[in-house]
Every structure is written in structure tokens, then in C-alpha cells.
Amino acid sequence: MPHRLIPALLLLILSACSSLPGPERAGVFPMLEDGQARKGIHRVILLIPGAFESVNIFAPALDWHLPDTTVVAYRFPGMDGLPQDHRVDMDGSAQLIADYVNDLDPDEVYVIGYSTGGPIAIETAERLTTPPQAMALISSAAEMPSAIMASLRGAVDVAEAMLRVGTTRSDAALTENYRTLLYGREHYQDSATASLSQSEAEEVRAVMVRPSLKLSLAHSASLMTWRLDADRDLSDTRIGFFHGGADPVFPVEATQTFAARVQAEQFLIYPGQGHLLYETSRRLFDDIRDFFAL
């Protein structure tokens, strides 16, 4: 994309979502907890999903059953029972999350962020009274123009999906493109993996989120213009990236550059897997727990 077109695109995005208030004005409070949250608890595990994703993607973390620990999660508008009456805001969402966790006054905080939830986790970390012991960023977005490029690549992927299925029907195209999200663009050349992706995509066809433009902007517009502060100091927090080697949304190389900027301790690559690691990797949450040393 010519660089001179990027400002025009950003203005269009920002004007389109300006009518939606930030998370502080949500009709329903965006935070969920597991029933164990109380002031002075020893440990908080904070979960932040990405665009169009339910907090249920983190379900394995609920099975860790750690003592004196609560699991809390941030919900995106239009997901997990939240009305679509507000938008995700990188600063506003991070502040809301941090205020909630700070009120619990824990001794330790561990954070798992997925996709858009990665940058939100980074923004949240500097607002926490207790710096996170560790953060695990799964299939993480990076700073501008990461999300813009992801949107452009995604549009091409959906168009190619339409060509493969021979129809412009959105439900068919999104189901077909889900296969690319699972295992990347090259997996169609391997008959076994292509067969697997086809069956897995059919399993979720009926429940797949089909986002409207309004929902898309509410979830992603703020990320489009997000930049990491040059003086951001995350040295008190161990950061690990967990990334699919064939991620079609946020390519490995660009994410590795971002990981270096935040002084990540670990960058674990899952060969042959795409953006939806919570679906394709059986060991993902075991790897995260090992990284957390819990």
C-alpha cells in the first residue's frame, strides 16, 4: 500500500468508530472472574482475548487449579454476553483492566494475551501497581502498521477463499478462510493437513462469528494506530511469545522484531500452525504454564 494512502485509511477508520464510546461507558462491566476474586488474594491470572474471540479460548488455564489464585478476563464488546455498545480502546481498555486488578491488590500477576490482547496486555502492565511476574503473548499483534497490514492480507485471503469455494457467499468464504487461519496459506499443498483443516472448519461453521463492519471497527480500530512508547520499560516482567510458524495474520518475522523491542525472554514458534494456536496446539497452555513456572 502506498504510504500516502495510510493516513486516509486511518482517518476513515477513526471516523467510522468515533460514535462508539470507550469501555468505561460499557452498559455491562467487561471484566469476568471465576468466583475466587477478593482483595488481597495472592495471585491473579489475567486473560485478554483478541478480536472476535471469546474468553473461552483460555479454558485450559481454568484447569490449573492453583491455590489462592483467581482467574479474571476482559471481554470484547459483542462477545461473551456483552452488548455491542462500546469499543475496545488500547488505553481505555488497559486502564479499566488495571484498575480492576489493582483493586484486588494481589501479590503476583500473570497475564495471557491473544492477538489484539497482546498489545492490550503490554499497555495494562505499566498501569498495574504490581508489575506482572510474566506475560504470555499468543499470536500477538504488534504496533502500527501491523494491524493495517493484517487487514489487507485478510481481505486477500478471503478473496482467495471465495475463489477456492466458487462462491461469494460470506458464510462459505469465512468458513474456507478459517482453514487458512488454522494452518496458514501453504498447508493446502499437503493433502493430510488440508483434509484436517477442512473437517475442523466444518465443525465450527454453525458457531463461527461473522463480524459486521461495526463490530470489526469496535474490536480493531484502536489497534490500527497503536504504537509502543519509546520509553516503555518492561524489564520487571518476563515476556514470552507463542507464535504459529505459518501465522497468516501477524507474520513471524515482524512479530519477532516487536518481541525484541519489548525485550522478550522467549519466542516459541509452532511450525506449520497458523493464527489459531488455541485450536491447533495441544501443548500451548502447558508451554505457557511452564514459562510461568507455576
Index terms:
single chain; 294 residues; alpha/beta; 11 helices; disordered N terminus
> Looking at CATH, which topology would you report?
Rossmann fold
| Total domains | 1
The largest beta-sheet arranges its strands as 1-3-2-4-5-6-7
Which CATH C-level class is it?
Answer: Alpha Beta
Q: Give me the number of helical elements.
A: 11
Q: Compute the average pLDDT.
A: 92
Q: What sequence of helices (H) and strands (E) makes up the elements?
A: HEEHEHEHEHHHHEHEHH
Q: How much of the residues is beta strand, in percent?
A: 5-15%
**Which bin fits the share of residues in helices?**
40-55%
Q: Can you tell me the CATH superfamily? A: Alpha/Beta hydrolase fold, catalytic domain
How many β-strands, per DSSP?
7
Shape: globular
The radius of gyration computed from the alpha-carbon positions, rounded to a whole number of angstroms, is 19 Å
Residue stretches low in confidence (pLDDT < 50, at least 5 long) are 1-7
Summing up helix and strand content along with how strands pair, one would put the structural category as alpha/beta
| Main sheet record | 7 strands, mixed
CATH-scheme architecture: 3-Layer(aba) Sandwich
The end-to-end distance, rounded to whole angstroms, is 44 Å
